[in-house]
Amino acid sequence: MNILKPRQPVPELVVDTSQGTWSLSAQTPDNFTMLVFYRGLHCPLCATYLKELNKLAPKFADKGVALLALSSDTQARAQQAKDDWGLDAMNVGHSLSIEQARDWGLHRSAGRGLTSIGIEEPAEFSEPGLFLVRPDQTLYWSQISTMPFARPAFREILGALDFVLDKDYPARGELS
């Protein structure tokens, strides 16, 4: 598993999305690209989490933050999540490969059958991760998890962005 360090270049990321092929290096946000890796259609916590992000997407755009939610789900499952969860304000990526997940330091899990909402887990999938990437393709902030619980709150991230942008606060955690 790769450990990405703040202020260092992140791996290139090219994925298929609900809006076509998406490349991290082609993004031109004013301040950051926020990548929100989610577990997939089978995860009810992901649904709640991404619905909140969808509501706040205009506020992130106002702060110069481009958004992408993505998972290792197939195109059909990602489209179902986008439709069922009402993710109309954001782009949703799919088919994240094992290699891409490893490049980003994401934890992986084996499927264990039906979830509490009656949807089959894929044979293998990525656990959650959130990354803020500067326009120069360096990592500003990250958080990865081994579990679907206790993810960073988007409203808190919005508040932190006000401070970060106002104070030109540097990326932290850069030492090995």
Summarize the structure.
The protein is α+β, with helices and mostly antiparallel strands and 176 residues long. The protein is built from four helices and nine strands; from the N terminus they run E-E-E-H-E-H-E-H-E-E-E-E-H.
User: How many domains make up the coordinates?
Assistant: 1
Count of DSSP helices? 4
Unreliable runs: none
- By CATH reckoning, the class would read Alpha Beta
- Sheet-strand content, in percent, reads 15-25%
Using the CA coordinates, give the radius of gyration. 15 Å
**Classification by helices and strands:** alpha+beta
- What is the H/E order? EEEHEHEHEEEEH
Helix percent reads: 25-40%
Number of strands: 9
The CATH topology is: Glutaredoxin
Structural account:
With 176 residues, the protein is an alpha+beta fold. It has one domain (14-167): Glutaredoxin (3-Layer(aba) Sandwich). It is 28% helix and 23% strand. The protein contains 4 helices and 9 strands, in the order βββαβαβαββββα. The chain has helices spanning 44-62, 75-84, 98-103, 154-167; strands at 14-17, 20-23, 32-37, 65-70, 92-94, 108-110, 124-126, 129-133, 139-144. The strands form 2 sheets. Strands 2-1-5-4-3-8-9 form a 7-stranded mixed beta sheet, with helices on one face. A two-stranded antiparallel sheet has the order 6-7. Helix 1 (44-62) links the parallel strand 3 (32-37) and strand 4. The radius of gyration is 15 Å and the shape is globular. The two termini are 15 Å apart. The model has no long low-confidence stretch (mean pLDDT 96).
